[in-house]
Amino acid sequence: MQIIPLDGGVGGDEVADIERQPVFVDFNYPHDPRLPLNWPLAKKVYVQVVLGLFILVGTITTSIMGPAQRMITAEFQVADEVAVLNTSLFMVGYIAGFLVFGPLSEKFGRKWPLITGMGASSAFSAMPALGRDTATILAGRFLAGFFGVACMAVMGGVASDCFTLSHRGVAMPVVVAVVFLGPTFGAVVGSAVVALSPSWRWTSGAVAIAGFVLSAASCVALPETYPPAILRSEAARLQMNSGVLEVRSALDKEGFTLEHIARVYLIRPFWLLATQPILALLTLYQAFLHGVLFLFYQSYPYLFGTIRGWPQQLSALPLLGINAGVLVGTAGIILYNQLYFRHLHHVAAEVADGAYIPEARLPPMILGGVLIPVGLFWYAWTSSPEISWASTACASPLIGCGMYLVFIQGFNYIVDCYTSMANGAMGINGSVRCSFAAAFPLFASQMFRELGVAYATTALGAISVCLVPVPVCFWYWGDRIRSWSRRRIVV
């Protein structure tokens, strides 16, 4: 690493006085081995695997208590809606957590907000496992969600720290796939735990134990990936060992003030949502689909358990079809991204600035938008007990693949359109999505009981059909909308 004074170069007469001057620690660009972009591939993959474990535990926690709702209702003599709050309040915690852990990861790096968030989430997950009243259970779920969102808040940052743009075309699809796999696994695992364990409380206790173990191991096993935080550690080491009075890192030079936090992370995201039609429409589309996904965690156990009469430990298993579709979508997106960047590299050789169009992200999203209503209508009209369960289950991969394509390419499109403000744009996108995921389960039981699975899901399919034109419109007019929108960004 280089050590240079903050106020300029070091002259011959100044060398003797360097210990009395503030000095600035920086990397030897571009090939410094301490820079995460230059780490060996095996180390980068290792970091992504550990991050994936954090995301898996965090997202499983979102839905693992859903199958315990009947037991909570019976034990505490509360209404169904109160029991459903154990899922909804967890997602409400996500909404607030997105606005906190984003700036924390920019100030303190990725590692410690991630570990602290998971450790605190695990501690609060113990409250439902040990609580003796609904207030304790619901407060624990909210706080577990608030801190548990840390893994989601840092995942994009970790990928951008370790991988170039073209390599992120492989890394990000895999990480986002884990985000989708987790809640579905949570519903399946929760059903099995409720049916086979001595108490429903093990749904929360199991993830608390897993989170504690993962957090403790990562304290020593997970390296920091945020370059300014690495510089800060190096500056602290040099200051301790070299006798220099003041050693600073790039992080100290940023001026990370409360005003900066409020403007970038609290005001700008809402301003972007209010003034940017691309962000607003994509966020609405993805938020609706996120809500539908959490509706399914109520619908599948009701359809296969209550209507078809499957035992509880098996009633959520057809949800794994959604995960199968996610895996197919992940493979397809990785292939598409490799072809996309290969073509981009070819075009960049002919275009002076190497520019590319964000709208090139949209074809897989359009395909996903078509697959979703097809899967929903299929699921709806094969839900009758007179029709084989296998036909109903076959709709799940279409829904899972379609949702994954809409989400991953929607995320990429937002980042491409708002590169310099991607943190704010993705933060408000995540908060709105979580608000839908928190609200939809509250009316799931009434909707499926009163309308029936067929008509309720048909209504969802009809709404999803109405949203298919969103990416199609951006494909045709996205460039014009972006050029108009840029003039409205003032925050």
UniProtKB/TrEMBL annotation:
It is a multi-pass membrane protein. One of its GO terms (molecular function) is transmembrane transporter activity. It is found in: Membrane. Residues 47-491 form the Major facilitator superfamily (MFS) profile domain. Gene3D superfamilies: MFS general substrate transporter like domains. It comes from the Eukaryota. Keywords: Membrane, Transmembrane, Transmembrane helix. PROSITE patterns: MFS. Coiled coil: none annotated. Pfam families: MFS_1 (PF07690). InterPro entries: MFS, MFS_dom, MFS_trans_sf. The chain crosses the membrane at residues 45-65, 85-105, 137-158, 170-196, 202-222, 270-297, 317-341, 362-381, 387-407, 454-478. GO terms for cellular component: plasma membrane. This is Major facilitator superfamily (MFS) profile domain-containing protein. The lineage of its organism: Eukaryota, Fungi, Dikarya, Ascomycota, Pezizomycotina.
